[in-house]
Amino acid sequence: MRKIIVLAFTLLALSVQSQTKTTYIYKIVGLDTLKLDVYTPVNLEEDSKSPTLLWMHGGGFSIGSRDYIDDAKLCEDVTKYGYIGISISYRLLRKNTKTQFGCACSKEDKMETFKQATIDYLDAAAFVVENAKTLKIDISKIIAGGSSAGAEGILNSVYMKEYFADSLQKYKRVKFAGVFSAAGAMVNANYITKNNAVPSVLFHGTDDNLVPFANASHHLCDLDKPGYLLLDGSKIIAEKLEALETSYYFNIVKGGKHEVSKIPFNDLDDIFKFFEQTVLNNEVIQTKIINTKS
After folding, report:
1. In which band, very low, low, confident or very high, does the pLDDT at 292 lie, cut at 50, 70 and 90?
2. DSSP letters along 49-92, please?
3. Which has fewest Cβ within 10 Å: 64, 71, 185, 280?
4. First vs last Cα of the chain: how many Å apart?
5. What average pLDDT is seen over the chain?
6. Beta strands in the chain (DSSP E)
7. How far is 168 from 186, CA to CA, in rounded Å?
8. Span of the secretion signal (predicted)?
9. Which CATH number is 5-292 given?
10. In this model, does residue 59 exceed pLDDT 80?
């Protein structure tokens, strides 16, 4: 087992419930020291095991942080539903690059970025699983969550780890019970199968100009641009899950663009009710909600 390195401890308080926040290093890669923040309800019993949201922030693989105000707030808020919230850092490989992650960024660089983000996320998940007893985590009930670039990272990790990971042996105990994606897409939804399909929450705008809603080029890049790369967005993912008779909660915003990647705080009650029914109680529920951008 890897040694747990505790960096910080802070007692936080919400109006409804309090939680502790503890920060760990989960790996060091070159000059990058990658950490995760664990938000735990203070009233957990000593030998309890809790479901967990393992969250990956957005930012185009160039900006953002695990303790950004919205990402931290989400992980605080999930403790109200009896979950442990974990927000991770990962390598921002497009930071300070000329091409960033748009149409000037080559397809090869985009795929390498997806690969390394997948590896970082899986390494964070492996750390959590290895230290589950200390962290009071039920490893059979880990929800993979993320927004924008983070949603791309977690979708590729859940459904395409065989494609992106160099070695599956180190992740043999890593299993995900659900997905929470805000404006995400994956490289190829055909990798979703009956064996790996899990209850998935999907939020997406139909006119997203960065991460495709259905099957389209990333950032809507033209065919002649270096960054032309087809991705499968939430619509395609939901269709695969429906065909596989797997639960999903698909919130569509007609006319919505990439602002739908913002964490849907007003919908958390419905989201965690869905996870209660499908992940905790094994019900099969397929829900599609259509809103119109105001």
Report:
1. very high
2. -EEEEEEE--STTTS--TTSHHHHHHHHHGGGGT-EEEEE----
3. 280
4. 51
5. 94
6. 5-13, 18-29, 32-41, 50-56, 84-88, 137-147, 178-182, 185-186, 200-205, 215-217, 230-233, 248-254, 286-292
7. 19
8. 1-18
9. 3.40.50.1820
10. yes
| 135 has pLDDT over 60 | yes
Quote the radius of gyration of the chain (alpha carbons, Å).
18
DSSP H or E run through 101: none
Q: Cβ distance 8 to 22 under 8 Å?
A: yes
Average pLDDT over residues 136-147: 98
Are the C-beta atoms of 178 and 84 separated by less than 8 Å?
no
- The answer to whether residues 39 and 85 touch, using CB atoms and an 8 Å cutoff, is yes
Side-chain half-sphere of 219: how many Cα atoms within 13 Å?
20
Each residue of 168-216: pLDDT tens digit? 999 999 999 999 999 999 999 999 999 999 999 999 999 999 999 999 9
Q: Which amino acid would we find at residue 58?
A: G
Residues in the chain: 294
CA gap 25, 6 in Å, rounded: 7
Whether residue 13 has pLDDT greater than 60: no
One-letter amino acid at 141 equals K
What residue segments make up the domains of the chain, in order of their start?
Answer: 5-292
Contact (CB, 8 A) for 188 and 212: no
pLDDT in tens, 201-257: 999 999 999 999 999 999 999 999 999 999 999 999 999 999 999 999 999 999 999
**Torsion, CA 24, CA 26, CA 29, CA 31, rounded to 10:** 0
The residue type at 25: I
> 58, 149 in Cβ contact below 8 A?
yes
Statement: residue 81 has pLDDT above 50:
yes
Tokens of 110: 């985009």
Fill in the amino acid letter for 232.
D
